[in-house]
């Protein structure tokens, strides 16, 4: 018997697949935020610092992306 959940990717699997991309996007956004801060008189954020901070900050971004993709997949299945 096949149920409606069979073959459906859970959010956590999608999140594992999307983590490198979401963490990379977070790193780019942090670096660009550092450039904006530099224009306003603050110290710029170094690229390496942005990458280091993107490792933990990429987790909630990845979870949000996984939920969004899961919703798109559910909508496509309907």
Gyration radius over CA: 17 Å
Give me the secondary-structure category.
Answer: mainly alpha
Low-confidence stretches: none
- End-to-end distance: 20 Å
Assembly type of the chains comes to: single chain
| Main sheet summary | none
Strand content: under 5%
- Total domains, how many? 1
- Mean pLDDT over all positions: 91
Helical segment count: 2
Which term fits the overall shape? elongated
Write a brief caption for the model.
This protein is mainly α and 78 residues long. Helix content is 77%, strand content 0%.
How would you sum up this structure, described in words?
The chain is an all-alpha fold. It has helices at residues 11-39, 47-77. Helix 1 packs across helix 2.
Task: Indicate the topology.
Layout (H helix, E strand, L loop, with lengths): L10 H29 L7 H31 L1
Helix pairs in contact: 1-2
Features of the shown structure:
78 residues; 77% helix; elongated
């Amino acid at each position: 018997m096949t149920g409606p959940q069979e073959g459906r990717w859970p959010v956590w699997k999608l999140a594992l697949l999307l983590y490198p991309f979401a963490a990379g996007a977070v790193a780019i956004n942090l670096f660009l935020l550092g450039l904006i801060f530099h224009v306003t008189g603050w110290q710029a954020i170094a690229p390496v610092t942005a990458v280091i901070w993107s490792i933990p900050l990429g987790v909630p971004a990845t979870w949000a992306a996984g939920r969004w993709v899961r919703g798109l997949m559910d909508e496509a299945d309907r």
